[in-house]
Amino acid sequence: MRVVVQEAPFDAGAELNAFAKGDTDIGAVVSFTGVTRDVSGGLARMQIEHYPGMTERALTQICEEACARWALADVLVIHRFGTMEPGDNIMMVATASRHRADAFAAADFLMDYLKSRAPFWKKEVTADGADWVAAKDSDEDALDRWS
Amino acid sequence: MINVLYFAWVRERIGLPKEQVETAATTVMDLVEELRAREERYALAFSDLSALRVALDQDLSDFDASLDGVREVAFFPPMTGG
């Protein structure tokens, strides 16, 4: 299990190639990369604030929960903070398992939980000013799928 | 003495990221009432608790939770990671 919280950009392809490398008992690797999206046009940049300490703790707990629920050989979560431009990678998760069903389900679970349980806050900056991104009820509702 | 941290718009409304608070509050709600009574900016930040989350010593918690033994309280809006 590897949890990384960093300001610097990361190379999703290189991370994925290095993930679970050499483990010959794995039949499936699933990954998801979150990218800074210009939702309504005119996004200059996105600023992501986090809670140092709690962030690493929350992400580790979420990964441990995924490992308890599914047969995973490895889990990777990378999440950035600081300033991103449209098109920049924000975060990625990867899961490795013997079979794809566990790898897919665990990646889905990790995304649902880290969206509303890891202490990150996004702020969108446009020419008109800056606004905090509001959490969606649907993100909270998504957690019910796993209870 | 408790370390109180604020994030995102809660930090902006109150105007600082963290402070040490001398308090006899026994629950999070008691602490919120003390902070609300301080100044308008606190009252504004804590006006709608349904729009806020609280963490005690870096674990998500509830506003009716006890502060017994707690060293760090953080207030912030619902999280938007991913």
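qc> Chain B is about 30% helix and 25% strand.
qc> done
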